[in-house]
Amino acid sequence: MYEKTIDSSPGLGWLCSREGARIAVPLCLAILALVIGVSLAGSPIVGYAALGASALALLVVILLHDPFWGLAAYMVTFYVRPGELVPALAPLHIERVVGLLALAALIWHRRTGERWEALNHRVTLMMAGFLGIMALSVVTAYWKTLAILETIEFAKILVAYLLIIGLVNSERRMGAFVWIYLVLIGWTAGSSLWGFFSGANRGFAMGIDRARGLALAWGHPNSLAMTLLAAVPFLYLLIPVERRRPARLVLILIFALSLLTIMYTGSRAGMLGVLVAAVALWWRTGRRPAMFVGITVALLCAALLMPYQYQMRMVSILDYQQDPSSLGRIDSWISGLHMFLDRPLLGVGPGNFGIAHGLAYSSPWRPSWLEAHSIYIQLPAELGLVGLVWFAGILFVVARVNRKTRQMLVAGGNVWSWHYRLAVALDISLVVLLFTGLFGHNLYRPTYYFIAGMSVALAYIVRQVAAGGPASAQNSAQGMSNKRWEVT
After folding, report:
1. Where is the O-antigen ligase-related domain (predicted)?
2. pLDDT digits over 71-119, tens only?
């Protein structure tokens, strides 16, 4: 049976009660404001440090009351990366600290509750196993320090996964989490467009101006395009069932910003991914002729209205033999196959493709540090046959979980409800990621693993709703497709 929505732990007493939170949270906010005021008159570095420490103290108080907000805070720090935007905050390792605090709060609240069934889910065990494979690959890595750092980065993604399956345990929380994710996608797209048009964060590569993300994780135009593209199916499928007009307008704005930013990244894989997403959405939503015509007209108009430099960027796909970027990728793919043949079991180590390419798989007179530019080369080259089989297993199990979720919804008469649309969006996002993975090394992209967490959480929620359990008790009278999404 799926867990109940987590309430305040009785062991924490008054502080975790509603009355205690009403006093403690404003008190912490007042202290935080005081710290900000005092720090303005002193050293900026000291001020930033004091601000960060005060914010963490406030977060601790909030987590003691409801650890769900720890997941929200972790998602915000994961996408915004305050340590990168404000270098003075980097020594605080805010993202890492917030994740550990949220995980600790989750464990604390569960110490006297029901057994955490999702922790034993096959996807969870396979995710943990994948982290173990990455750790083992450190032994065969060319640059072990880099492999360790990449493994730590994946461990942070695994923390987010655990928070998702542990805290997104009711219909309203699932709705709130999806909103948090989509708003952060909107932030990523909007901030990238601002940096592009203001010139503050505009890149120039392959002969064109290119939008880049503010955070290092999606600072490369291709990474930014893939991050935004994965959210397109969610936005397209959930906009029609959003009943509140202001909320629907926000989703439409995020949808438009995401598509516009993908275009300005100049990513050919990203723009091809939009086409694949459109075809997949048409195929999975009834294959109506009118929808096909509408999508075709929209794509043609977008291609015609696209600035000339981006049109030429897309046309260059047809003449890859004259494109240095394409030729470099082909050379990188060949080198990746040699890496796999040389170290077939565990590969050259996580995150080590570029290093191995430059040190051992290119000319010593003209070394090439080019990355794999394909998950289908990166995965076997960096993690070997073991990693390849294991990752394929994760994808298979996640797809199977989503299929069973849709079957339960159909059996309950909830075809094309909010939940059904979410399950379809999860599947299409995986398809889009795997397609764009043909041209991009996106193995460690967090979206794969966030999708896995959301799939597991949604499966448990739908199962509990079908059984009339606690996950749906508060909303059972309204029907699954007619929710006002709030955090409980």
Report:
1. 254-391
2. 888 898 889 888 787 777 777 778 888 888 888 888 887 765 555 666 7
Nearest alpha-carbon partner for 265 in 215, 327, 203: 203
Phi/psi at 202 (5° precision): -95, 130
Q: Are strands 208-211 and 202-205 parallel, antiparallel or unpaired?
A: antiparallel
State residue 323's pLDDT score: 59
Task: Check if the beta carbon of residue 84 is closer than 8 Å to that of residue 214.
Answer: yes
Torsions phi, psi for 203 (to 5 deg): -105, 165
Are 226 and 274 contacting, i.e. CB atoms less than 8 angstroms apart?
A: no
**Dihedral angle, C-alpha 355, 360, 363, 366, nearest 10 °:** 20
Mean pLDDT of the chain: 80
Distance of CA 49 to the CA centre of its chain: 28
Per-residue model confidence (pLDDT) at position 388 = 96
State both tokens at 122.
């096959």
* Three-state SS at 345: coil
Backbone dihedral region of 211: left (phi > 0), alpha (psi from -120 to 50 degrees) or beta? beta
> CA of 336: how far to CAs of 307, 352, 354, in Å?
35, 11, 10
* Per-residue pLDDT reduced to its tens digit, 210-255: 888 888 777 788 889 999 999 999 999 999 998 888 999 999 999 9
Could you tell me if residue 315 is left (phi over 0), alpha (psi between -120 and 50 degrees) or otherwise beta? alpha
